[in-house]
Design brief:
Strands 16-23-22-18-19-20-21-17 form an 8-stranded mixed sheet. Strands 1, 2, 3, 4, 7 and 8 form a 6-stranded mixed sheet that branches. The protein is α/β, with parallel strands linked by helices and 480 residues long. The chain contains 15 helices and 23 strands. The protein folds into 3 domains: 121 residues, Nucleotidyltransferase, domain 5 (2-Layer Sandwich), CATH 3.30.420.40; 179 residues, Nucleotidyltransferase, domain 5; 150 residues, no CATH class. It comes from Clostridium punense. This is Ethanolamine utilization protein EutA.
Length: 480
């Protein structure tokens, strides 16, 4: 069988707390299926052909992104790259960091999706951003190669996002209000014009008096940076956690007690952890350079083994949304035709979650659904499991209960239940879920589909007299 390859142009656009940037990539895809079967597409090569300038994210005020100016930035970068909208076949627009919490984030996203065809369009809260950054930095691959716990800390302007991996699988996430632009300094006058309230509290806790209007004192900024580093050391289980650590949590931290062996860094500050030019401490009108220098001298990189990141500041920029067309198995459940469904994020439980039994499935699902929360509100997601190969009647009953109990938050918001199973049990599992819910929620349960965390799917209208549904899997592709 002759394999057919195609090269497509993809774009990744990342709108973060501090910076906006984009990357164009040539993605080579190959159809590995025969001419008589459904196409099965895999990525065989990727080449970044253009990296944009790093732009400060324009804001109307502290609560609103300036959508028009963001669009102008993206349009200008398209022009610089010599790329037209028609050239781009696929891509992703992701709003991350504190920017995702702005009032008009979704409006800006939808506005930008017009820069290409069928984009992955998503607003990433702190946990999802941690996952994207960790994979972008390559921490998942390091954990697989080293058979060890590896943490990535993505340090941007407003937050530090933690993603912990083991054997290539995501284990835990966390986020702290620690970043390079939580103190802002005017480049001309060298006066401080912004201090994040929590950082002012941190400064007070170590006896440092700092106020807006003061000329930036390097010694004071360095003491604050060292205190931030101490909190980061607590976050990765190197120190006993303090009340200040709790105050600086954005939403949650990774659990205590892990034996973490390796660490990677991404985000804007990472360039000053892996680099060594500290000659201009306030180069960017903030404390990012000083924070990077203090991390580079800390036990974070001395006790834990520092590994190089595949990407630093661009780790959260998605290389592509690779479209893989598939067809569900023929034993599926859908209680109503609510299709088509677009850009549904995937939450996949790990093999370890499933192997530990039904209680573990319930607990892990309840915990991991928080990855997709924005402003403490849950988003619609599809839960993916491998599922047992030859389950008994009792197994299906217990699996259904575990999934329902784990999805309580989604059910309370009256979302339909979406379950994707690799093994061929979707019909009986979906029917059981629907029955145990007293038919109070729509249930879509499909099988013979393999997806991963970080994927998004579209589900089309049923085919073959309703026996199967077409599925488009959109895989976020990283330079790692």
């Amino acid at each position: 069988m002759r394999k057919i390859q195609e090269k497509i142009l993809s774009v990744g656009i990342d709108i973060g707390t501090s910076t906006t940037q984009l990357v164009f990539s040539n993605i080579t895809i190959e159809n590995t299926a025969s001419s008589f079967t459904v196409p099965r597409i895999k990525i065989v090569d990727k080449e970044i052909i253009y990296r944009s300038n790093i732009h400060f994210t324009p804001l109307i005020d502290q609560k609103k992104i300036d959508g028009n100016k963001v669009r102008e930035i993206i349009a200008a970068e398209y022009e610089r790259a010599g790329v037209t909208v028609k050239d781009v076949k696929t891509g992703a627009v992701i709003i991350t960091g504190d920017t995702a919490r702005k009032e008009n984030a979704n409006e800006v996203l939808q506005n930008l999706s017009g820069f290409a065809g069928d984009f992955v369009v998503a607003t990433a809260g702190p946990d999802l951003e941690s996952i994207i950054a960790g994979r972008g930095a390559g921490a998942d691959k390091v954990s697989d190669e080293e058979n060890a716990y590896v943490v990535n800390i993505d340090i941007g302007g407003g937050t530090s996002n933690l993603a912990l991996f083991k054997n290539g699988e995501l284990v835990d996430t966390g986020c702290l209000d620690i970043g390079g632009r939580l103190i802002k300094i005017d480049l001309q006058s060298k006066k401080i014009y912004y201090i994040y309230p929590k950082i002012k509290k941190l400064a007070e806790s170590i006896g440092v008096a700092i106020d807006v209007g003061q000329v930036a004192d390097l010694d004071k900024i360095r003491k604050i940076a060292k205190a931030m580093v101490g909190i980061l050391e607590e976050s990765v289980c190197l120190k006993v956690r303090t009340p200040m650590y709790e105050k600086l949590l954005t939403n949650k931290g990774i659990k205590d007690g892990y034996t973490i062996e390796h660490i990677t860094f991404s985000g804007g500050v990472a360039d000053y952890i892996y680099g060594s030019d500290y000659s201009d401490p306030f180069k960017y009108g903030d404390m990012g350079v000083v924070l990077g220098e203090e991390i580079a001298k800390s036990t974070l990189v001395k006790t834990l083994k520092l590994k190089p990141a595949k990407e630093t500041i661009r780790a959260t920029v998605v290389g592509a949304g690779s479209h893989t067309t598939d067809i569900s198995g023929s034993t599926i459940t859908y209680t109503e035709d609510i299709f088509p469904i677009k850009n549904l994020p995937i939450l996949k439980l790990s093999s370890e979650d499933e192997d530990k039994g039904f209680n573990s499935i319930e607990e892990s699902l309840r915990e991991k659904l928080k990855w997709f929360n924005l402003e403490n509100e849950s988003q619609q997601v599809a839960v993916a499991i491998k599922g047992p190969k030859s389950p008994s009647f009792v197994d299906i009953q217990n699996l259904s209960k575990a999934l329902i109990n784990g999805m309580t938050e989604l059910l309370q918001r009256n979302y339909p239940v979406f379950v994707i199973v690799e093994n061929d049990i979707a019909k009986v599992l979906g029917q059981t879920i629907h029955r145990q819910l007293n038919k109070s929620s729509n249930v879509v349960c499909i099988d013979s589909i393999k997806v991963e965390n970080g994927d998004y799917i579209d589900i089309g209208s049923p085919l073959v007299n309703g026996k199967v549904v077409p599925v488009v899997i959109k895989t976020l592709v990283f330079n790692s």
